Amino acid sequence: MRNLVKTFKALSDPNRIRILKMLEVRPLCVCEIRDILQLANSTVSKHLSLLRDVEFILDEKDGKWVNFRLNDEQYNQYVSKLLPLLAEWLPDDAAIKRDREKVNQVDRYISCVS
Amino acid sequence: MRNLVKTFKALSDPNRIRILKMLEVRPLCVCEIRDILQLANSTVSKHLSLLRDVEFILDEKDGKWVNFRLNDEQYNQYVSKLLPLLAEWLPDDAAIKRDREKVNQVDRYISCVS
DNA sequence: TTTATATTTCGCCACTTGACGAAATGAAGG
DNA sequence: CCTTCATTTCGTCAAGTGGCGAAATATAAA
Q: Which residues in chain A are contacts of B93 at CB distance < 8 A?
């Protein structure tokens, strides 16, 4: 129960939804997400650790970066049902579309030095 | 987006999850739910209006009572996907089980006079 | 119409949440 | 080892949430 509620809480914030929808396009690091969402680094980091906590996303060290990607493995029953649903939803949302275009433009070598 | 977030927020509270899982058994009025959850009338009413707002539940006047039941109609894409998932989840949760046993015992003619 | 009672609305309080900047951490490269 | 820089952690603050009791509303019955 507790874990289920935590899982829904993770989905109860527009910025976290935006992050998940961006990660549908490709894995991203904190700086890239920060540049797209226009939030402080620390804020993005907190959102990501929350999403990781309930296993919506996984992180992989890549040199000095951390790549965050959707968890498409199947060991978490909530995640494995909810991520595919989310992927079907909001296909026409203007903000989401804009975010996903930006995903294809951002470059971590430019985003991160700041 | 806004509506989707609101929908997940509605699922982000243990008492609201308990209410939905109780309504899987049968429709209930505010007093019956209040007796099972041991909350104030006004608190239960607020939870119910929130769940109704995002169309997880419907209400029907029945004399001086209001019966709340799950919305099993199919016009809301989020609800029609999420309610069936919720119905599969938490099959072994102790609190949920206790609640559902109580659903079969409460009687609004006893619960409500207080 | 008056009374009883089920529900909703309102105002209040404690706690949580999402935001930030500053400081701490950790890995890469000089 | 020391510097650089991506990320995380910490402290703080404003806004949102869930709880309550009291007052308002609505329906049934007397």
A: 1
Structure tokens at B97: 């089980």
pLDDT tens per residue, range A46-70: 999 999 999 999 999 998 899 999 9
Checking if the pLDDT of B4 tops 80, the result is: yes
- Domain A2-111 classified CATH 1.10.10.10? yes
CA distance A52 to B88: 24
pTM of the model: 0.95
Residues of B in contact with A77 (CB under 8 A): 89
* Neighbour tally for A59: CB within 10 Å: 17
Distance CA A40, CA B4 (A): 24
Return the residue matching tokens 């433009």: A105
Q: Using the CB atom, is residue B5 less than 7 Å from strand C?
A: no
| Phi-psi domain of B73 (left: phi exceeds 0; alpha: psi -120 through 50; beta: other) | beta
What are B48's two structure tokens? 């119910």
**Cα–Cα distance between B109 and B77 in angstroms, integer?**
36
Handedness of CA A71, A11, A52, A69 (dihedral sign): positive
Q: d(Cα B20, Cα B18) in Å, to the nearest integer?
A: 5
The partner residue sitting opposite A1, judged by closest CB among B17, B78, B81, is: B17
